[in-house]
Amino acid sequence: MILKGTKFQLKVWKYLKTIPKGKIKTYKQVAISIKSPKSARAVANACAKNPYAPKIPCHRVIRSDGALGGYSGRGGIKQKLKLLRSEKAEI
Fold first, then answer.
1. Cα-only R_g, the chain
2. For 44-65, what is the mean pLDDT?
């Protein structure tokens, strides 16, 4: 699959594919992992613009306060919760 997005979005999306099924990360953890520690908000925006959900699992990324954040895929936040539950993620 050839992904189309900005350089930053592609970096975020590539990282998201490494998050194992059933695991969750925060936007901040993703930002730190891609060596852009101050870009948690930009990571959230890249997740929001992800047209490849759920193949690129942005549903596995949540807010630092434990809230789910958003979900750009069909079904919105309810679908995000359903996906996380189906993967037995601890949320």
1. 12
2. 96
CA angle 67, 71, 53 (to 5 degrees): 135
**Residue 25 three-state SS:** strand
CATH code for 7-86? 1.10.10.10
Q: Which residues are catalytic?
A: 58
User: pTM for this one?
Assistant: 0.94
* Domain residue ranges in the chain: 7-86
CB 24 within 8 A of CB 83: no
**Residue 73: pLDDT band by 50, 70, 90 thresholds?**
confident
Going along the chain, which residue ranges are E strands?
25-26, 61-62
Could you tell me which residues come within 8 angstroms of residue 33 by beta carbon, excluding any fewer than 6 positions away?
15, 25
d(CA 34, CA 22): 20
Cβ count within 10 A of residue 45: 16
